[in-house]
Input
Amino acid sequence: MAVEAIGHAPRRPGVLERLGASLLDGLQILGEATRLFFAAARATVFLPADRQRVVVQMVRVGTDTLLIGALLSLFVGMVMVVQAADQLRDVSQDILGPIVGLAMTKELGPVLMAFLLAGRAGSAMAAELGSMTVYDEINALRTMDIDPVRFLVMPRFVAATVALPVLVLYSDFIGVWGGAAVVAADPAIGIPVSAYFARMLEWVHFTDCVVGLVKGLVFGMVASILPCTFGLRTRGGTEGIAASTTAAVVWSFILILVFDFLIVRVTFALD
Amino acid sequence: MATPANERARGVPVELAGIRKAYAGHVVLAGVDLRVAAGELLAIVGQSGTGKSVLLRQIVGLERPDAGRITVGGIALDEYLPLPPDEKPFRIAMVFQSSALLASLTVAENVGLRLRERGGRAPAEVDAIVRRVLEQVELAGTERQFPAELSGGMRKRVAIARALAIDPELILYDEPTADLDPILTEQMGLLIARIRAARGSTQIIVTHNLPLARAIADRIAVLAEGRIAECVTPAELAATRHPLTREFLRASALAG
Output
């Protein structure tokens, strides 16, 4: 055995081998996330009994996201008006309201808030569950006949899924008013705020808001289940926790955009 | 250490037959056979990496062996584990090496966690049990503190209190004295001996602290090369002729 170890240096896996291993690992993560999603969904039958834990998680999500969410939405709304006003200078700035309204309700509000939730609350979920996994706290729960999915994952899943649509509305509202502030204050914009809102109300329909809320619902599930999945599969101490947290955020961002695309395709097909 | 027979009867026997476990082709347990009598205090010793903790995880059901059979209280572990908590004929508790206390919960919440979540008991009753077990581990008054506010030794005792709160028939300890100084190690040993005297639960302690094992255990099992090299009383261990045990004793004496 020793002779063999000295005689042959460990073979470095080739590119294809590494690619294949990464692909298999990715499929395994998706499989685990899907299984955890169904387990968390099943555990919602205990929601009435576990409502206190859900409320605690909702407060955490709120404190993690409300202030930064407001700043993000405000400046995105403002920047959008500045950019669009410049592009429309020689055409008509009448459609500034619809541009901001539709962009915020259908796309930017849901995606911005989902990224924020994944980056702030999601990373905290991955780190917390990762630490609990590494230091045997999850195993301790199992030995006490306490289901970690019901005790830890379900409250986070429900909190994020309920909170994100609310955050989307919050973001839409602030983004639209950020745009209105620029319309009112920027002398280069030649329409009154009343016209900005009037045209917006003509173009933005209730169904647009519903699409945004549906996105918020789905993104909330993604931005909680993936961090919980990565947290529960953490191995290898402090470095493992850091790696899980980073991977959870990156995967959440990617899957949020994948689901965004799918929802857009479905809504366009239904139109 | 003598214990009244009626109290000893509260423990459950444990039997392991041909337990094998490998990780990615690396064999850790190569056929472990072990019998622990009801109410017995057994110490499992061995060098680091010989699979002592892995063995405990098989007994508590956190991992399944690749082969072999585990019987606790006359019931196969595979039949015991799926039972609903209130239909289990006995309870198994484990004290983890890292204490594994939930950082976001207070001492009282940690200790009473299983009772609140699965016990179906009134809050006042849970509080009374928590107070009682915290007194047993000499931590009365720490109910409102968080684990981060406690020393390592105190956290271990809270973990033991959490185990005692469910009134278990079998308690498993994974390196209960790891990272403790000699005085705290002695206190921990006395605490474990006291628990056995008071409750008669079967206790299995994984440790590489041979003096502790000799002081409190009825028998000491030496785990080497994936098997139980021998399982003898502390007195018999001192006079052993088994080469693997002698090697471990020699190394322990050097380290100690």
About this structure: Residues 1-9 of chain B have pLDDT under 50 and may be disordered. The two ends of chain B are 24 Å apart (CA to CA). The first helix of chain B runs from residue 5 to 8.
